[in-house]
UniProtKB/TrEMBL annotation:
Protein name according to UniProt: Uncharacterized protein
InterPro entries assigned: DUF6111
Keywords: Membrane, Transmembrane, Transmembrane helix
Spans traversing the lipid bilayer: 35-58
Top-level taxon of the source organism: Bacteria
């Protein structure tokens, strides 16, 4: 559950930023007063791009060695040996 919270936060970030802009930048009294379909679609697109970029960065930074032969996990004398690349 904790692994998905940053992605949810990144998805909500453009919506929160636009709502704060409407409230304090344009001085709109209602939280939903300045929202249009176009603004909602742009925020949705930015949110999806932010989440996709974060998932790509997590995947790119978490890689180990990618060359060599993969050895799957195995049991040896009652001990689990994790899979690895040789």
């Amino acid at each position: 559950m904790l692994r998905i919270l940053p992605e949810i936060g990144l998805f909500l970030l453009p919506f929160i930023a636009f709502a704060l802009y409407l409230r304090f930048g344009r001085q709109v009294d209602s939280w939903l007063g300045g929202w249009s379909t176009r603004a909602f679609l742009i925020c949705s697109l930015v949110a999806v791009l932010l989440v996709a970029a974060s998932l790509y960065m997590i995947e790119a930074s978490g890689r180990g060695p990618t060359t060599g032969a993969y050895v799957p996990p195995s049991w040896k004398d009652g001990v689990l040996t994790p899979g690895h690349i040789e």
